[in-house]
């Protein structure tokens, strides 16, 4: 049974060991020699690929070995396997079948059998790997751990509250990757399907994964309303991948990668991509232009909103059940490179129109954020929303707000052809 390296790395404790043994490249030759039938064809030697698969997420190779294994076999299933290995020699037909060649089977057993069974000789390779301690360069700030409440209550506000990606995003990605409606897309931290659904027509299937059930309910409802039938949704953290989901042409992280165990997740996604596949790191870049833009309405009173949030939740930035004093760390490019990806493209879609929203849109923006998600306010949520709307009314009596145009950028990282 093939070893799922990402799954092994996920379940091992730091400094834990994994011992793997499998048939070596000389296995067929050894079996044939045991039955005096010559050298035989070597198996493909994939030890280098196995070593690379474990070292990519940072595991240390503790020991390797190759050796012969001589033992006596009594079970019929193993003997039938070995007969396949010597087919075409020693009077064993090339199309050997136990049903059609039972007499040959009996003769070989009679010739090579002993009271202990049939003596054979196999070839094995051994790898011993050790999982490293977490790389603190890329770790979340000390004292914060992810928990399932991170976006609790935000799903209903997310689509309306968040700044939209460029309308041409899906077409630009499709052109950059030469998509033709085949292959599969994995959207990690998919939320309500903001990226997965526009891209669905460019793939045979899209799979969205998110730990928040309410986000996936929103994604499913939006897919139904849009008539999209090739999307499915999986409730899980990125750290739980690969989850038996198979291989993908592309994987997307749209403002979600920073919440994950990034070295582990990058290495896992690398293994899940087909050769030549792409990882898409998608972001909104606010205030990217240095040009002065004449806005049709006042900008949202962000400073006053933040002051009100601090008044209710305290001075330290909240995130789930914990606090993030200095936000999430950076360094994504180095992490992708260490996972084995190569940078191949940087797509920039320049925003040209201001983002115009009403008061409900700004309230939705506040509640769509991890640091002001509805659950954080507890039984004071209604009071907070009342005061928030008063702040907005004072800032713009007409109830309309505008933000400068924002850019959408996509960093494309490729898994090289093997």
Topology of this protein?
Layout: H1 5-11, E1 17-23, H2 27-34, H3 47-55, E2 60-73, H4 76-85, H5 102-112, E3 113-114, E4 117-130, H6 155-161, H7 169-177, E5 184-188, H8 196-199, E6 205-210, H9 213-225, E7 231-235, E8 248-254, H10 262-272, E9 273-285, H11 302-313, E10 318-319, E11 322-323, H12 332-339, E12 342-349, E13 355-358, H13 359-367, H14 381-395, E14 400-403, E15 407-414
Parallel strand pairs: 5-6, 5-8, 6-7, 8-9
Antiparallel strand pairs: 1-4, 2-4, 3-4, 9-15, 10-11, 12-15, 13-14
The SSE order reads HEHHEHHEEHHEHEHEEHEHEEHEEHHEE
Strand segment tally: 15
Overall form: elongated
Low-confidence stretches: none
Distance, first to last CA: 22 Å
Per DSSP, the total helix count is 14
Oligomer: single chain
Radius of gyration: 29 Å
Q: What is the helical fraction, as a range of percent?
A: 25-40%
Order of strands, main sheet, comes to: 7-6-5-8-9-15-12
Compute the average pLDDT.
87
Strand percent estimate? 15-25%
Structural class: alpha/beta
Largest sheet: 7 strands, mixed
């Amino acid at each position: 049974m093939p070893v799922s390296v990402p799954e092994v790395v996920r379940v091992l404790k730091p400094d834990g060991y994994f011992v793997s043994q499998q048939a070596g490249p000389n296995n067929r030759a050894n079996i044939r020699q045991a039955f005096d039938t010559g050298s035989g064809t070597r198996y493909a030697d994939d030890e280098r690929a196995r070593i690379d698969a474990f070292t990519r997420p940072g595991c240390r190779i503790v020991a390797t070995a190759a050796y012969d294994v001589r033992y006596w076999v009594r079970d019929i299933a193993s003997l039938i396997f070995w007969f396949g290995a010597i087919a075409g020699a020693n009077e064993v037909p090339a199309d050997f079948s136990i049903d059609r060649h039972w007499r040959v089977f009996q003769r070989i057993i009679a010739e090579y059998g002993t009271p202990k069974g049939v003596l054979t000789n196999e070839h094995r390779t051994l790898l011993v790997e050790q999982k490293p301690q977490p790389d603190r360069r890329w770790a979340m700030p000390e004292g914060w751990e992810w928990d399932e409440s991170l976006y609790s209550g935000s799903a209903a506000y997310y689509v309306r509250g968040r700044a939209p990606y460029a309308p041409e995003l899906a077409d630009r990605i499709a052109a950059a990757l030469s998509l033709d409606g085949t292959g599969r897309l994995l959207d990690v931290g998919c939320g309500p399907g903001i990226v997965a659904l526009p891209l669905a027509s460019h793939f045979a299937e899209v799979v969205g994964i998110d730990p928040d059930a309410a986000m996936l309910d929103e994604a499913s409802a939006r897919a139904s309303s849009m008539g999209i039938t090739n999307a499915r949704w999986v409730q899980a953290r990125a750290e739980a991948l690969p989850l038996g989901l198979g291989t993908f042409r592309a994987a997307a992280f749209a403002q979600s990668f920073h919440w994950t165990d990034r070295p582990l997740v990058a290495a896992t996604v690398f293994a899940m991509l087909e050769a030549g596949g792409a990882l898409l790191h998608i972001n909104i870049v606010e205030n990217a232009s240095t040009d002065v833009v004449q806005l049709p309405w006042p900008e949202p009173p962000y400073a006053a909103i933040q002051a009100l949030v601090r008044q209710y939740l305290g001075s330290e930035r909240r995130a789930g059940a914990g606090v993030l004093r200095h936000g999430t760390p950076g360094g994504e490019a180095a992490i992708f490179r260490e996972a084995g990806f190569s940078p191949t493209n940087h797509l920039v879609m320049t925003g040209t129109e201001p983002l115009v929203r009403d008061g409900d849109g700004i309230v939705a923006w506040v509640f769509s954020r991890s640091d002001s998600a509805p659950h954080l306010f507890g039984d004071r949520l209604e009071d907070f929303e009342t005061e928030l709307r008063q702040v907005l009314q004072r800032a713009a009596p007409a109830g309309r707000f505008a933000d400068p145009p924002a850019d959408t950028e996509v960093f494309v990282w490729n898994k090289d052809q093997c």
